[in-house]
Amino acid sequence: AKEAIKEAERCDPESIFTQFSIYKIAVQENNVEKAAEALNAVGRLSKTSVSSEDRLLVSESSASYLLSLAAQIALENGGQETAIKALEVLCENSKDEGHVLMGLRCLVRLVFSALEKSADELRDLNMDVLLPYLKLALQTISHQSHMTAEQRAEDANWFRKIAWNSALQCESSPDRMRDFFVLSYQLSLLCPPDRTLLLGQRTCLLMAAAASLELCRKSPHSIQAEELTLVLEHIQACWEVWKTLKASALAMEPPAYFPLLCKKALRVALSLHKKQPQADLKHCRHRYTAYKYNTLPLKQLLE
Known about the structure:
Layout: H1 2-11, H2 16-28, H3 32-46, H4 60-76, H5 80-93, H6 97-117, H7 120-143, H8 149-168, H9 174-188, H10 195-218, H11 221-246, H12 259-275, H13 281-292, H14 298-302
Helix pairs in contact: 1-2, 2-3, 2-4, 3-4, 3-5, 4-5, 5-6, 6-7, 7-8, 7-9, 8-9, 9-10, 10-11
């Protein structure tokens, strides 16, 4: 197989299938560096148009499937590092948002799997690897044009929880904690708002502000103003969320944030109204008539 691939590479080095075969042999031989080179070539060739008539056309989706298969092959052969590389190449080169989000979910799971096995000194390194995956997820979901509202909310909520849980693991690192909480807040903005979500947003912003204050205490005087500006931005956003939470939201017409809560509040209001003494409508009519013909001052009418 190696001899055949060498000949194929000599004849047509720009074939994505040749590079994929080189990758498979490299995985079998546990040659991580060679596998990474082949994956980079597959990613590069997936964006290159093929003009020759006697060569196979490869669609972008086909290239994405090849890279997904490459990750599966690596995992089946115990090559987690190579699998991560294959998924990263997929996310970097695919224009299909669905494939990108699928790849990012797999990458997040692989990172958390590594976190469970890693020593404390490697934990921060793995968290740094996780952060760009979540940022790419936020960008992809925000610009996803073919998603339904339900799909968008589902993906955003999944990555929001990952960012939240990641922030909780960064108690000793205020900068990482702040970044993860801010990402969790930004992802929550892509989900349908309800009371639970708004409470989560408020917590994210408060924790991000607290982390920024902690960084400010440890920072040189020259950059403290920047950190304090971020604190003010987080507090202002938190105040907006808090005002929404404090709103009664009795209006049922759009943009009503809590329709179920509105109905419940209206039922309670109606129940309380029924328990109050009923007004004497006949007496009120006589008082209004007296006011209408200027025989009763307005103050007495309101009383």
